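User: My advisor, Dr. K., asked me to get a structural model of this assembly before our group meeting. I'm new to this, so sorry if the format is off. These are the inputs:
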Amino acid sequence: MHEASVEQKMAKMPLFLDALLHENVCGGADKKGDSKLEELKSQILRRTVSRPVIYVGAATCGLSAGADKVLVAIKKYLADKALDAEVVEVGCIGLCSEEPIIDIQLPGKARVSFRKVNTNNVVQIIESTLAGNPPADMTLGQFRGLESEKWESVTFFDEHPFLKPQKRCVLANCGIIDPCNINEYLANDGYQALAKALHSMTPAEICQEVELSGLRGRGGGGFFTGKKWKFALQTSGDQKYIICNADEGDPGAFMDRAVIEGDPHRLLEGIAIASYAIGANKAYIYIRAEYPLAIRRLKEAIAQAEDYGFIGENILDSGFNLHIIIKMGAGAFVCGEETALINSIEGKRGMPRPRPPFPAISGLFGKPSVINNVETLANVPAIIQKGKDWFSAMGTAGSKGTKVFALSGKISHTGLIEVEMGTTLRQIIFEIGGGIPHGKKYKAVQIGGPSGGCIPEEKIDIEIDYETLKEVGAMMGSGGLVVMDENTCMVDVAKFFMDFIQRESCGKCIPCREGTRHMLEILESITHGRKNESKLDTLERFKGIMHLSRLADVIKDASLCGLGQTAPNPVLSTLRWFRNEYEAHIYERKCPSGVCKELLHFSILENKCVGCTACSRKCPAGAIMGAKKSPHYIVPGKCISCGACKDVCKFNAVVVE
Amino acid sequence: MFEIEVNNKIIEAVPGETILSAVTRAGIKVPTLCYMKDLAPSGACRICVVEVDGMKTLVPSCSYPVQEGMKIHTNSKRAIRARKTVIELLLANHPDDCLYCVRNGNCRLQGLAEEYGIRERRFPSSKKKDHMLDATSPSIIRDQAKCILCGKCVRVCEEIQNVAAIDFVKRGSKTVIAPAFEQSLNVSSCINCGQCVLACPTGALREKSSLREVDEALHDKDKYVVIQHAPAVSVTLAEEFGLRPGVDINGLMVAALRQLGFKKIFDTSFSADLTIMEEASELVHRVTTGGKLPMMTSCSPGWIKYVEQFYPDFIDNLSTCKSPQQMLGAIIKSYFAEKEGIDPEKIFSVSIMPCVAKKFEAARPEMGRNNIFDIDAVLTTREVARLIKMAGIDFDSLTPETADLPFGTRSTAGKLFGGTGGVMEAAIRTAHYMITGKELKSLMVEDVRGLKGVKEAKVKIGDLEVGVAVVSGVGNASKILEEIKNGRKDLHFIEVMTCPGGCIAGGGQPLSTDQESIKARLHALYNIDHSETLRTSHKNKDVQKLYDEFLKEPLGHKSHELLHTHYIKREVLS
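Assistant: The format is fine. Below is the predicted structure of the whole assembly, which you can bring to the meeting.
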């Protein structure tokens, strides 16, 4: 970014803000003011540019794919060639599997996105594009723009199968605007909802509006947000708190990170509105320390918002004050649970407290507090600005609006998506996600993290909302979707999640702390081979299996917090939909997917083995015997089921069952 | 008041109270494990879960508030199954060495397993607990293997005592309770008060026993074994033998100790009187010479370590007097040894204390001279009960006996040391006499009596108005110390006892210690004070004799050498 342009922007800032506040928000928009504003907006949003602009997707996903190196390469190239171009770091557009992604916008031409950019091809991409010839195999698509000429050879990005079925509200700005520039958020109608709320709505009206919009918590339970706010509003107290829960801990979930890295002001605006709605003048953002970039973005955004007067004393002359404090968490999963989170902010060990009292009555430091997830709060500005009806028009009967999901696992397009509630899983996985790679068959999708469940093929046509997911034994959770193909063992999946939970249990209540560990041990006994198993062990193993569902019931029924009460879900849902796999493990001592190594039985087909000795030389356990040029055989007692023999055999003589 | 339905019976409930409190009042028993009266419920153990109509999950009765019209089932199949499973899960992880456990027959987990008829190990114990026994503390032994992580010790240490030496460490099934950085207890901020031992439902926490040393000494012909018993012991020991709280068995206890073979049985209340002579003199000295005020008592070793660690600026406020245990110890190995012609090295001096911090105190390097410790072994009330049981002594066949001279006579003022306010009351009685030459009109100082954590009074001694404060439960002390830090000047003398209620609720007392028994024990002390005639320390003839024959005068040269001590600033992680 050139120094001059920053200064120019800073100089324009008050004018822009002034125009926004007085011409647009307060309703007195005359034609002249409007056009001046539009001109400013257009400039800030780079609808037209006077020199080339290169956008680099520099969120964590992009950076880990190499965007930082690409960025260096771009800057070096521009310096070497003395090219006058602007480089803008943007957030994540969501298509993580195609990262690093850069966009190039030439004067007069539409912005066009390129995929899988690296230091080797970036120069060529820039040069070809500058020459009017963007390399076709690298383009993802071009942006629509009224004021620019489209590229003939390039498709529109919004028609990309990944983006087309999406409805991006929370993610509207992610990957498109510069998250570090508050003007860009403002030019996209940012902070107008806050102005509207402060100037024309009472806190009770806001709570009412949010309640009627049907917005439900996006972090787990799905409680009605407006209702939660009302409880806190109605509780009297000299001090109240809004707490933004950005302690995103589910395996395979990165929605919150992407929103904060890509559009932090949307979150801040949501926090400000929520704080005004319940009468809080202090808000905490509880974010895990493993998100350094998100924390940096938040800090920058808070400083900017304070400069502009959207946070601080007497916000927009309304008399409302708000201070936002970032509190970094050490990364305990349980700190996503609201009472544990409160303990953590208070400087105590992150362990849940019994409820009631609910935080809305007695929360942080004993004061009325509302804890909302990042995505929930990021939904708020649009609801206030566009109204409850706009929001409730989207979604299903019980679940309104959109939902952000993080796609990961065995799926072609891993990344971040936002769809209307009620979209089918099939559409998400096979259309947006591009299906299962390598022609493999779909087996299940794990949704809702360790509290959620696995959804089998026969339920893939359910329309996703809070209720339908519960019916199939899963839950919305924060929205992590982990896709599994036919090579996944569902017992192994259950084991993975139980292992996660028993590690991350806070250790306070006995059913969760001890129960989850025993559930894990039972699963381990199912997947262990029986090489050294005594008869008593076998009996214990069978008894253990009988105890699995009893344990699950008690853990659900008697645990202290949501973590424990949902901890058995991964086991229960796999038991429900994939009982046959459990049975194969238990009764036949086989793992149908070939994942549980200790249950695999390797043998050599006599008629195929030529006695080349490759396998016996490779075997790390010395389990393969046989003379040269005569068929070999595997000593079962010695075999460790590593599969090295199968990999090395050129004659397909090694078989596994 | 409104009505709720419990087990198909209508009972009354008070708005705001918990289910547990309502059903307990109605005589319905719900088991608890981590529940602690008067502390905010932690809801950790889930033993007290009950079924409530309309609730999705079981609710913990210890924390869930009653609501009008609530229908509760405390013994539904679901609730019982959950409780049983919780007990089984704990047992799966618990060593099977009940027969060797200090808490055998007195263990909450064992009791629950019994009550719920657990007859098989449903969940295999695959995770071997290979924790080290933390025996580093001179007072308390921690056995992690037996810890069920109920968190009561953590809460008593933090919320009541304001020490927070231990907390939960690590996560999930690896969670343990430990001092900071899992270091051992001796280098932690533990003040050795032992309130955690009283709170612990299992054998995870216990006193470091000195029974073996005492037993060996008793059978060592070369040793001259003497024993002293603290003021608070005679009113609690009976509970260890099944008697109701508040019964004073001083005479029987002395008889039992004599049967056990102790050569001399002395009464620590005697040296409490001695302490008063020294401490009241010190107070008068400080007041008249402009010394450091307010003066604070120094009888309670937990409190001493608390000051040394957390409030080292107040070290000069502590009285330099040793505690009665240490004073008597020092006098036994000097005056008594001299008088009886016994080599002090051959004397094995035992004390029975209601306290585990006394074990730490006795081991402080400044508590002795010429490599001879003032006290050689400290037994708690619980340990001495074990010793008596082991010897097969039957209380019914004993007749009360009296303690041995020259340290067997005591005033009731010295006896009052056993409960909160007692040191203050005794000191006021004697200070009044020292300053005015006259006895108090009414010896009872009502304002410093009772179980309140902090008591304050203004006492008229002649023309002087003395501001006094009495604190019990060391956690309550910090408030007053902060006030003094911030300039409060009206206090002259402060008594602090580490344990809430004083020594009668000390960490070495019977495990049955609860609010009711503490009340009864305190009452027993007051009864003794009301029913006897020697009620002031300065009137104790044997104390006077000790001064005449040996010490000469309070705060004199010999006193300084034998009866006074000093303190050190301690660095701890906190």
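One thing worth pointing out at the meeting: Residues 535-558 of chain A form the longest helix (24 residues).

User: Perfect, thanks a lot.
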